[in-house]
Amino acid sequence: MDSAIAEASPYVRAQRNLATLKLDQMAASLPDYMRMVSEGDMEFVSALAEMTSAEVRSREQRILRQRLRSSGFPYVKSLADFDWSFQPSVPRPKVEELATLRFVDRAENVLLVGSPGVGKTHLAIALGVEAVRAGREVRFMDCARLVDDLRDAQSRGILKKRLKYYAHSKLLIIDELGYLNIDEGGADLLFQLVSTRYEQRSTIITTNVGIGGWAKVFGDEVAASAIADRVCHHCSMIKITGRSYRLKDLPAEKKREE
Ligand code: ADP
Ligand code: MG
Fold it and tell me: How far is the CA of 192 from the centre of ligand 2 (A)?
């Protein structure tokens, strides 16, 4: 086998080595670069620099895609995809300031409040994606799923470990607080989570219920204000008051029907 490889042409050996090293871009572009070098259009070292640059870029993109996947975003959207003119109540300079991620470095929180479809989750994801791009560890969790997960950890006696896991993320996004009511046990778990992150790590919360309505969500005034207290200290609050983006095309459709 070894002697067979040794006997193969340099091109075949190079292709085999590139395949073993999983350098697919280099393998694909090798014939073109060989031609350019042999025809004197490019120096060997320039060809090598270009080929390895393409490989480095493709590896970086692969790692970014992998990190976006493992962050748990339901979909990937960016601020560039956000139609600011549709939702003028969103303070663009404030959101763009948040996108610099200084709030993450200062372990501050963000609260996005508004009725369904106004872009809360979109903005939270866009900020999360910026943080992933900047190499920060981000975790996106639906609020009900997060409470269920903590409850499950508690019942298995591994709550401390699970809280540590969540405390580790530089940015935790808790999506859709308030869509489902949370019982006393759930409120306590959420309080413990928010406490472990307080002044240490950033949290973004999206909610359809203003702080004033949290007592109803948690079924308890004391738990609600304990959680709100820790979330709202060092917090940027963004209230979105516009129409649902999901329904934006409705009037036009209705007009057509008429
Ligand atoms: P919310 O979380 O407030 O209920 P979402 O962020 O899930 O709403 O928005 C619903 C859908 O509409 C998503 O697909 C989102 O990308 C899109 N969307 C909402 N607002 C905008 C906007 N201003 N520009 C572009 N897309 C938007
Ligand atoms: Mg949402």
Answer: 24
Q: Is 207 helix (H, G, I), strand (E, B) or coil?
A: strand
Token pair in block for residue 258: 């008429």
Chain segment 213-232, per-residue pLDDT in tens: 999 999 889 999 999 999 99
Per residue in 48-71, pLDDT (tens digit) is 999 999 999 999 999 999 999 999
Q: 117 CB under 6 A from ligand 1?
A: yes
Beta carbon of 245 within 6 Å of any ligand 1 atom = yes
Residues with beta carbon < 5 A to ion ligand 2? 121
Q: Is the CB of 207 under 6 A from ligand 1?
A: no
d(CA 258, CA 252): 10
With a 6 A CB cut-off, is 179 part of the ligand 1 pocket?
no
Instruction: State the CB neighbour count (10 A cutoff) for residue 249.
Output: 9
Q: Which two tokens stand for residue 145?
A: 């799923």
pTM over 0.85: yes
Query: For residues 79 and 101, what is the distance between their CA atoms, to the nearest angstrom?
Result: 13
According to DSSP, the residues that pair with 207 across neighbouring strands are: 113, 177
Of the listed ligands, the closest to the CA of 244 is 1
CB-based burial of residue 246 (10 Å sphere; 0-12 exposed, 13-18 middle, 19+ buried)? exposed
